[in-house]
Amino acid sequence: MTTRLFGEPVQRREDPRLLTGQGRYLDDLGPEALAAAFVRSPHAHARVRDVDVGPALDVEGLVAIYTWEDLPERVGRPLPLLIPHPALTHGRTAHPLARDVVRHVGEPVVMVVAADRYAAEDACALIEVDYEVLKPVVGLEEAVQGAALVHEDVPGNVGAHLVQEVAGAGGRGAREAVETAPHTLAFRLDIERSASMPLEGRGVYARWDGRDLRVYSSTQTSTSVRMAVAAALGLPLPQVEVIAPDVGGGFGVKIVHPWPEEILVPWAAMTLGREVKWAEDRREHFVSSAHERAQVQYVRVGFDDDGRVLGLDVTILHDHGAYTPYGIIVPIVTSTQLLGPYKIGAYRVEFSSVYTNTVQVTPYRGAGRPQGVFCMERTMDKIARYLGRDRAEVRAANFIGPGEFPYDQGMTFQDGRPLVYDSGDYPEMLRLLKELIGWDSFERAPGRGIGIGCYVEGTGVGPYEGGHVQITSDGRVHVSTGLTSQGQGHETVFAQIAATELGVPIERVSVVTGDTRRFGYAVGTFASRAAVVSGNAIALACRKVREKALRIAADALEADPADLEITEGVVHVAGAPNAAVPLSTVAVLANPLRYAFDEETAKATQFAGAAAPDRPPVAEGEEPGLEGRDYYSPIRSTFAAGMHAAIVETDPDTAEIRVLRYAVVHDCGRLINPMIVEGQIHGGVAQGIGGALYERMVYDPHGQLVNASFMDFLMPYATEVPRVETAHLETPSPLNPLGIKGAGEAGVIPVSAVIASAVEDAEGFPIDRMPLSPSDLYHLRTAPRP
Ligand code: MCN
């Protein structure tokens, strides 16, 4: 057995429990709890004139009905705007229940609490809300004309406007560089709205015992929910616990905090003195959670005869939906990370973040990057096509060289930190990808095309995460970190890190995430940050515990700590395996209060011998127990990268698009667990194929989401996703002790661009929109072309 587990394809330890139905998801909890349900707006834009709850009062099992007017001032306030930005001049968030105006179909208006969900839904159906219907704003280009307004005080529906510019040589601006370049192209790209569809929807369950509030939420960020709930309900933080139980997927949507329900359900539990639970249904997820993507991009590019980009000028309209709880993080990620692995002359990007009467937009896996990559990669293909050059060659002509790291892209991120790429080797990555997919030997045939797409992704953002590690007298290692897990395999990888750092078998390590009782300070799981930020924090905490273990063992063995090693959970003198003490014994020695409750303690007490009468039981500067806590706070993001290629086939009659092969080369620095990273990439690619070919939110001109069910919102099955062929390149990050970069969003980011590239290759005309259904392709085939 080895204890060097970092880098090994260890089987996911959580899977047997989850796959055999032992998982405990939100709706498995609180079977006796009262059920909450919501009356949600059927209109995209309307004034709430009156709510008549009378007809619902006779429903058997009804416990309470609440409108905005019933909420105390603290609870009824607009939800927080989590990430403000100076460019977001008109940030707007919703009230937990509509106060006077509803701004999208699905906005909560009334909360009902009843004995069970049936009774709660029956009561909802009988409540009569009198709406004065207002003109809805739907569609980006219509919205900016400002004929109707989502928020009366936001002219032109523009919540934020930002221009960012990186000048080229001699301070030349991008517009000038485009104008004066030997060749220029201009085009428009359309990326439709989509959304994350975790198998388990959102949900909250709350218990109040008269002093403490315990909240379970299917969330990506339990510590932030805790702070939000404490603030809204006026409770001191230590009286609120928030626990994320098993979470059946999040993909970004469960990072919004607090959701209205996360405030209202705990408040109702406190007010009624009863347990209350709400579990979202699928329709609610469609119309009242959050969406993403949804951009129109206007691109102008100037380049030379070799395809080198001299100037790039991009204007983006970003559809923000009705509210901006997450600020403008999505369009900022698009604009700042659009350049990918390329070094281009001069860059100007301008975006307007636009309100529409649709579901709000917050980060969804990839968070603005798929849109940016679509733009950059379409640009590369268009340049290659115009010059009659190989598409991979044009990309290579623009790459940042392997000797140019750290490389400052010139952009500044949301938090004011510069975007500096830490490491990478893009030419080598391209070489590996071409080999993997057989780029140079691809045989052309009618209706078959090959496509390519590259990206760079800032991962592992701060501000911090922490890890706590405790070794108990049975030799077991208990690891906890505050961020949450939604299926990424954290129980396995964090155990791998701890087992490697401490020299213990992985079977002895257990991991807890997302429970504020175990770890109170944390940020959350998003932006592919858990491996980098929590992973390094856990490693640092382990190193503290290891040092302490060596100090105590050195004392017991009368050796120098520098001569000690830990193997298989036993501390021993290097080269002298008999001079040894197990970590279980060290754990007992670490606590001078040694009642012999068990055999280990009795043995260890004997081992320690008599107390040294001239020393205090706990030495100065030492703490009892074999445990340690540390935090890791990254100075800036670490930049993972990847390149994907696909071979597609398009049907000449039905215009159906089939993905025949899909290849990925990926670099997330040092791999903790290659099998888990591959799983993350495969899942991401499947999600990306959905975004490229099937998934779209279709709003009609009245602001009704017309495909709000799995009957009409298509997702790929296993039959639509080919085997994903994956190769890894490891360029360790110099920024963190473990040399890792993130991997959780990588798979999804370039897929739309890659499929567009391949379909364009197969069909011979430009593909400037995503997703691309057979009917879209059919219409493009038959459309008149200049
Ligand atoms: N990993 C590794 N070696 C590396 C980097 C990562 O072994 N060098 C492992 C990590 O330890 C972790 C996994 O790969 O087990 C993903 O790591 P990371 O990139 O840190 O991403 P996070 O754990 O922070 O997960 C968040 C990311 C995001 S942002 C979305 S959205 C997403 C995703 O993860 N949502 C998911 N993957 C998901 N997977 C599932 N099953 N469900 C979701 O909701």
Task: Tell me what you see in this structure.
The structure is a single chain. By secondary structure, the protein is of the alpha+beta class. It folds into three domains: 32-134 and 202-279, Aldehyde Oxidoreductase, domain 3 (Alpha-Beta Complex); 162-194 and 290-461 and 635-782, Aldehyde oxidase/xanthine dehydrogenase, molybdopterin binding domain (Aldehyde Oxidoreductase, domain 4, 2-Layer Sandwich), CATH 3.30.365; 463-632, Aldehyde oxidase/xanthine dehydrogenase, molybdopterin binding domain (Aldehyde Oxidoreductase, domain 4, 2-Layer Sandwich), CATH 3.30.365.10. The chain contains 19 helices and 29 strands. The strands form seven sheets. The chain has a seven-stranded mixed β-sheet with strand order 3-5-1-12-9-10-11, sandwiched between helices. The protein has a six-stranded mixed β-sheet with strand order 7-15-14-13-8-29, with helices on both faces. Strand 19 and strand 20 form a beta hairpin. It is globular, with a radius of gyration of 28 Å. The chain binds pterin cytosine dinucleotide. Pterin cytosine dinucleotide is lined by residues 198, 249-252, 365, 459, 486-490, 493, 525-532, 668-673, 676-677, 680, 683, 740-745.
